[in-house]
Amino acid sequence: MVTGYALADIPGALASGKLDAAELTEPDREIRQQRGEVKLLAPTFNAIAPHFLIGGWVARKGWVDAHPEAARRFVAAIRETARWANAHHAQTAAIVARQLKLPLELVRAMPRATYGEVLTAATIQPPLDVAAHYNIIAPMRAAVLIGPPR
């Protein structure tokens, strides 16, 4: 594992030969691949699992207990947004292109996320297992991180 490079420095380090390989984020990977500057060696996230949680929202139990209706509405809004985005990929491409000031065809070519519509231990467990394998965290069961459904 190479350390010492900020995410923004990786393309320059690749171009100058200081790095031979690295993970690039979108849209940088797609832009550079279209230019012929890089090639995809491996879909790195697939080494973790076909589907897993890469980011999410967290609230303290005390806050949720004190604000159950706000918590419920927040969860409902996030779920509704995820469902809409998953079902309207073309429309979300246009939104991403407009917000990031990118060509629409570039955004359409990029791999993009499928948003989780339900939080499950099965989607949380894979990154925990990888982190534990590399001694980043102690092994743990994802189920203990999820509160009961409300």
What does this structure look like?
By secondary structure, the protein is mostly helical. It folds into 2 domains: 1-41, no CATH class; 42-145, no CATH class. Helix content is 47%, strand content 0%. It has helices at 10-16, 28-34, 61-66, 68-87, 89-100, 104-109, 121-133. The longest helix is centred in the middle third of the chain and has 20 residues, at 68-87. The radius of gyration is 19 Å and the shape is globular. The mean pLDDT is 90.
Integer count of domains: 2
The succession of helices and strands, N to C, reads: HHHHHHH
What quaternary form is this? single chain
Whole-number mean pLDDT: 90
What's the helical proportion of residues? Answer: 40-55%
Low-confidence stretches: none
Give the biggest beta sheet.
Answer: none
Shape: globular
* CA-based gyration radius: 19 Å
In terms of structural class, how would the helical and strand content be classed? mainly alpha
Distance between the termini: 41 Å
Summary, kept brief:
With 150 residues, the protein is mainly α. 47% of the residues lie in helices and 0% in strands.
